[in-house]
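Progress note, sequence design subtask.
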C-alpha cells in the first residue's frame, strides 16, 4: 500500500471532531488481583503446569491461551529497584506480563467485552507497553477482534529499557458484516529467539459513532478511501 495513501487516510480520520465514548474494560490497569508470589516484585502466575514459574494468584477479567508449558502470564507489582526499570512508567501499583520460552510458541491474554461492534464508527484501542532493562527478547502484538475476525492490530518496537504508548484505530464501515458481535481485545507475545516477554498497563478502548447529523460525519475523502478498502489502520506513538 503506498505510504502517502495511508498518510492521507490517517490524517482524515484523526481530523474528525472528538466525541469519543470509553468502552468498559474490566481491570484495565491490572490493579485487581491476588499477587502472592515474589520475584523482582510481587506477582501472580495463572498458567498451571508452567515449567518457568509455579502458578498462584489471580488476574481478574483476563483470560489466556497458550500451547506450551514454557509460558507465564499474570499480574506484576514491580519493585522500586532499578533491576526492572530505572523509573516507573505505569499507573498505580500493578501491570500485566506475558513470557514465553519455547520455539514457535506464543501466549495471548484477552478479554471479551460486553459491548458489541457497531457500524459506522471509529474505535481507538491503546495501551502502555514496557520492556525491562534485562529483557532477553521483546516481542508483542495487540489486536481488536469481533466475531473471530481480526479488525486491526499493532505493535511497538522497544530496543532497550523503557516503554511506549501503542495505539490502533479501526474504522467500522457502514453495514459492517461483523456488527453485533461482542468486541474482544487481545495481547500476544511470541517466541523471538530467546526468553521473550512484554509488560502492559492502562488498556483503553474508545468509540466515536459517526452519523449524518453534522459534526461527527467523516469527510467525503474519508468515505472514498474506505471504499478503496482501507478499513483498518494503526497509529503508533512512542515516548521514552
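Output:
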Amino acid at each position: 500500500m503506498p505510504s502517502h495513501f495511508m498518510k492521507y487516510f490517517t490524517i482524515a480520520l484523526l481530523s474528525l471532531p472528538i466525541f469519543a465514548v470509553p468502552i468498559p474494560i474490566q481491570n484495565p490497569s491490572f490493579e485487581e488481583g491476588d499477587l502472592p508470589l515474589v520475584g523482582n516484585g510481587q506477582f501472580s502466575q495463572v498458567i498451571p503446569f508452567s515449567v518457568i514459574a509455579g502458578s498462584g494468584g489471580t488476574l481478574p477479567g483476563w483470560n489466556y491461551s497458550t500451547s506450551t508449558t514454557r509460558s507465564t502470564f499474570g499480574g506484576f507489582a514491580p519493585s522500586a529497584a532499578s533491576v526492572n526499570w530505572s523509573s516507573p512508567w505505569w499507573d498505580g501499583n500493578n501491570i500485566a506480563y506475558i513470557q514465553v520460552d519455547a520455539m514457535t510458541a506464543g501466549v495471548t491474554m484477552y478479554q471479551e467485552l460486553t459491548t458489541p461492534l457497531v457500524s459506522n464508527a471509529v474505535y481507538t484501542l491503546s495501551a502502555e507497553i514496557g520492556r525491562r532493562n534485562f529483557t532477553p527478547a521483546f516481542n508483542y502484538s495487540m489486536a481488536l477482534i469481533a466475531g473471530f475476525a481480526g479488525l486491526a492490530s499493532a505493535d511497538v518496537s522497544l530496543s532497550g529499557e523503557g516503554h511506549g504508548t501503542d495505539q490502533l484505530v479501526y474504522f467500522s464501515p457502514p453495514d459492517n458484516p461483523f456488527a453485533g458481535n461482542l468486541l474482544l481485545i487481545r495481547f500476544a507475545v511470541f517466541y523471538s529467539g530467546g526468553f521473550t516477554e512484554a509488560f502492559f498497563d492502562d488498556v483503553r478502548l474508545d468509540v466515536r459513532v459517526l452519523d449524518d447529523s453534522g459534526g461527527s460525519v467523516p469527510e467525503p475523502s474519508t468515505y472514498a478511501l474506505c471504499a478503496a478498502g482501507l478499513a483498518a489502520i494503526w497509529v503508533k506513538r512512542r515516548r521514552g
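Residues 3-237 form a domain with the Jelly Rolls fold (CATH 2.60.120.260). Work on this subtask will continue into the next period as scheduled.
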